[in-house]
Amino acid sequence: MQDSILEHIEKLLHSPALPEFPAEADKEDKLHAIHNYLVTLRTTLNAFATGDLQFPVDIHGVIAGRLKALQANLMHLTWQIQQVAAGDFTQRVDFMGEYAAAFNSMVTQLDNALTSLRQKEEELTKLTEALRVEIAEKEEALAVLRKKEAQFKHLAEHDALTGVLNRRSFYELACAEFKRAEEKGYPCSLAIIDIDFFKQINDTCGHLQGDDVLRHITKTIKSSLRHGGIIGRYGGDEFVVLLPGLDLKTTKKIVDRLRKQVAQAPFKTSTGTIHMTVSIGLAHVMPQQGLCQDTIFFKSVIKTADNALYAAKEAGRNCLVTLSHCAQQDNVTGKE
After folding, report:
1. Exposed/middle/buried for 207, CB within 10 Å: 0-12, 13-18, 19+?
2. Which Gene3D superfamilies match (predicted)?
3. At 293, is the secondary structure helix, strand, or coil?
4. Burial of 333 (0-12, 13-18, 19+ CB in 10 A)
5. 3-state secondary structure of 332
6. Residues 198 and 237: beta-carbon distance below 8 Å
């Protein structure tokens, strides 16, 4: 029986399967106690091996004491790992030999790496803020530059006294509009407006008052043109207006309305009222007359309008004279 008891204990220690208690030793109480102890020990070790560190150690003695110590250390180690995961890199392990050294080294390296990352993050944040400030300053400078550029462009393209296009800019826009009219097939009309006896206004009222009259006339011209006409100062007391896309009848109606509004809107000053009239020469160009892309052609249209203006003055001023660009036939309107 002794052999069977030893064989049973050996199976309890080495066999993966739990052996049956030998029937011939059923009355051996001490063997039952050893059997139960070893079975409980196997179950406890199996729980620890599969990760159940909360499994109760229900045995006593030196082996049970060592198991409880190991269980407590492993549970504390688990808690320390959780603290490290939460960012506490002060945790150190002072048991488990080489594992403790490796764990402590790992935590130290993590702490150093995280500290380095935080320093780099701070440097990156400062650099980002500096870049943001620099970009804002450059954008502000660029906005100022664009504003200045727009102001210079406006000054270069417009008459400083009246604010309408200067002669050069009017020529550029008018040539482009004639080109568009030729491509699209619609007529264009060009009017030159001259203030009658403007020299007398300068001589009697002064040049500063004359400048005010020019601004007043400009305002009247703008308010009279409701069809998108292009306005420019041709020189001195002469203005030039391009009216694209309108037939001759409509154009004459608009331009003559302008003439009447000038006559009906005297300029009031602190010393009195200045009554003004204008003479207008109008050149009308049909799209089939072609050659609109040629600047020589455009200058010829100016010449036609100028001839019409001369005819208006010859007719006694304060009137509109229309010339077809090719026919060059006088058509006086509004002589009063």
Report:
1. exposed
2. 3.30.70.270
3. coil
4. middle
5. strand
6. yes
User: How many Å apart are CA 158 and CA 231, to the nearest integer?
Assistant: 10
- DSSP per residue, 54-72: T------SHHHHHHHHHHH
Cβ pair 332, 311 in contact under 8 A: yes
CA-CA-CA-CA dihedral for 81, 85, 87, 88, to nearest 10: -10
How many Å is the maximal CA-CA distance in the chain? 154
Q: At what angle do helices 207-224 and 198-205 cross, to 10 degrees?
A: 140
What CA–CA distance (Å, rounded) separates 307 from 332?
12
Place of tokens 């082996």: 63
pLDDT in tens, 135-158: 999 999 999 999 999 999 999 999
DSSP 228: -
User: pLDDT tens for residues 31-65?
Assistant: 899 999 999 999 999 999 999 999 999 999 999 99
Token pair 């004459």 is found at 252
Pairing status of strand 278-285 against strand 272-274 = unpaired
Strand duo 188-195 + 238-244: pairing: antiparallel
pTM above 0.70, yes or no: no
Count how many Cα atoms sit within 13 Å of the Cα of residue 80 in the half-sphere of its side chain: 18
HSE-up (13 A, CA, CB side) for residue 12 = 22
How far apart are alpha carbons 256 and 334 in whole angstroms? 7
Where are the alpha helices (H) located in the chain, listed in sequence order?
2-14, 29-49, 62-85, 98-157, 167-184, 198-205, 207-224, 248-264, 295-314
Report the CATH number of the 167-325 domain: 3.30.70.270
Residue 238 C-beta-side C-alpha neighbours within 13 Å: 13
Q: Which residue reads 């064989």 in tokens? A: 7
Contacts with 285 (C-beta within 8 Å, 6 or more apart), sequence order: 178, 181, 187, 188, 189, 190, 292, 301, 325
How far apart are the C-alpha atoms of 265 and 276, rounded to whole Å? 8
